[in-house]
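In the current project phase, we have settled on a layout for protein records. A sample record is reproduced below.
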Amino acid sequence: MDLDVFVSAHRSEWDRLEALLRRQRRLSGAEADELVTLYQRTATHLSLIQSSAPTPS
C-alpha cells in the first residue's frame, strides 16, 4: 500500500472528524451521525494500514 496516496485519499475525512471532535458547542443530529460514520471509517482505515504494514517502520 502506498501510504502517501492513502493519506491523500482520506485526509479530508480525517480533518472533518477532527473538526467535529473539537467543536465547542453541541453537535446537531446530522453532525453526530456524521461523526459516528467518520469515526467508524477512520477505525477501518487504521486497521487497513496496520494489516498492510505491520512493522513500525
Summary: The helical segments are 3-21, 29-52.
